[in-house]
Amino acid sequence: MQLLDAFALIITLTALFAYFNEKFLKLPSTIGVTLVGLVASLFLLAVNAMGANLVPTAQKVLEQIDFGTFLMEGVLSFLLFAGALNVNAEVLRKYKTPVLVMAVFSTLISTFLIGGLTYWILGLFGMQIPLIYALLFGALISPTDPIAVLDLVKRAKVPQKLESLIAGESLFNDGVGVVVFAVIASLAFGGGHGGHEAMGALDILRLFAQEALGGALFGAVLGYFAFLMLRSIDQYIPELLITIALVMGGYALAQTLHVSGPIAMVIAGLIIGQQGRQHAMSDKTREHVDQFWEMTDQILNAVLFVLIGLEVLLLKWPDNGHLLLLVMVPVVLAVRWISVGLPVSLLRKPFALQPYTVRMMTWGGLRGGIAIALALSIPVESAYRELILTLTYGVVVFSILVQGLTVMPLAVKAAAEGSADVMQNR
Fold first, then answer.
1. What is the DSSP letter of 318?
2. How far apart, in whole angstroms, are the C-alpha atoms of residue 32 and residue 417?
3. pLDDT digit string (tens) for 69-84?
4. How many C-beta atoms lie closer than 10 Å to residue 137's C-beta?
């Protein structure tokens, strides 16, 4: 099957799954299509166990659309830019300190805590792996997925402060997580991964600074240059094309310059979403740009989460894999609570952060396709790739289906507590 045929089939399945969800399940889109895709995959596995030879055919289709390449080098730039467009930059600027602390330090704390605990737990299960691989799992599973989290924020009527913290952290810790993963991968695989040689401490710091800070600076330059172009004309079609070129060309150039494309797209999206909307777009242009990026965001989201549901067909479950996941899922959640709780407790008074902040950011910190894509980027020849991929997939599916389905009551409670806080402060 050719790539175009495989992609056409995935788009068709996405439409059918979205229809089934809207008609019968009526779940939030990301959760519904993931669930339907997962059920369809399990059905194929069950039918295959009874003698039908359907799974190999389905696997060939999925292998034609490389999930990691599709996300990390394809749709991620669009989704991050679209997400950043709708973030209130003024509120985000007000809470930039807690957002950056949680995006950077919470991600680093979580990486090493999860990595160390994973190394110890796998040893208890008789699955000895090098510590560097356990840290690799910690790096890819620590960041919350902005694609899943932003969809949650849109539906949850939480206080604006909390909404900005959740959205801002998820947008930035994704880029930080990708950089941390790249650094650890370079230590694990040397020159065989991403072209990096084995590095010392100064090399690690230099790479981190180049990727993270370089990505932020590059995104600011791109966003400002696009803003000047948008301000100089008043015709929505070329203006819309400028935003598309900013995303596609900017992300490709960021990879060429070896700076973080995800961070660059977030910064550029914030600039266009704030300055571009207010000072460079007419009402007509603003309407068309918003409609295009909202539609693009929803369609690509649906395709991405259908692929997540179907990816179970490519997994090779280790012995005691299900029991291992029963241990690892609570561990990941506990570490998330610790890594968020520490900075929130330190910053609570200066920024008036309420107790529900930690609860909401822990249970609402969904993992998604980025974690799976990073796990898939581990070299195929690695003996520990399938184990890490299985752990990642299990945590992601639990996050999307269980946390995603049960977080709304927590959001309602947070909204009620937030309203009470506002009344008390008047």
1. P
2. 29
3. 899 988 999 999 999 9
4. 31
Q: Give the model's pLDDT for residue 303.
A: 94
* pTM given for the model: 0.91
Scanning the structure block, which residue is given the tokens 């991620």? Answer: 76
Nearest-angstrom CA–CA distance, 234 and 21:
40
SS3 352: coil
| Tokens of residue 109, six digits | 């704390």
Interatomic CA distance for residues 398 and 357, integer angstroms:
21
Element (H, E) at 340: helix 321-351
Distance of CA 74 to the CA centre of its chain: 14
End-to-end alpha-carbon separation of the chain, Å?
A: 64
Dihedral sign for Cα 337, 343, 346, 347, please.
Answer: negative
Residue 421 pLDDT: 62
Which residues of the chain carry a pLDDT beneath 50?
Answer: 191-196, 423, 426
Measured CA to CA, the distance from residue 371 to residue 360 in angstroms comes to 21
Report the amino acid identity of residue 125.
F
Which of 179, 168, 167, 255 has its CA nearest to residue 213? 179
Q: Which residue has the tokens 């981190």?
A: 208
Give the DSSP letter of residue 232.
Answer: T
Q: Is the dihedral of CA 293, 139, 142, 17 positive or negative?
A: positive
CATH topology of domain 66-302+321-420: Na+/H+ antiporter like fold (1.20.1530)
Angle, alpha carbons 398-402-403 (nearest 5°)? 95
Instruction: Give the Cα separation of 39 and 45 in Å (integer).
Output: 10
Q: Where are the domains of the chain?
A: 1-65, 66-302+321-420
Given this model, what pLDDT does residue 413 score? 79
Mapped to the 3 state alphabet, what secondary structure does 47-80 carry?
A: HHHCCCCCHHHHHHHHHHCCHHHHHHHHHHHHHH
- Which residue is listed with tokens 């830019």? 81
Cα torsion 249, 252, 256, 260 to 10°: value is 110
Cα–Cα separations (whole angstroms), residue 44 to 49, 55, 57, 369? 9, 6, 10, 22
pLDDT at 195: 42
Question: Quick one: which of 85, 30, 72 has its CA closest to 293?
Answer: 85
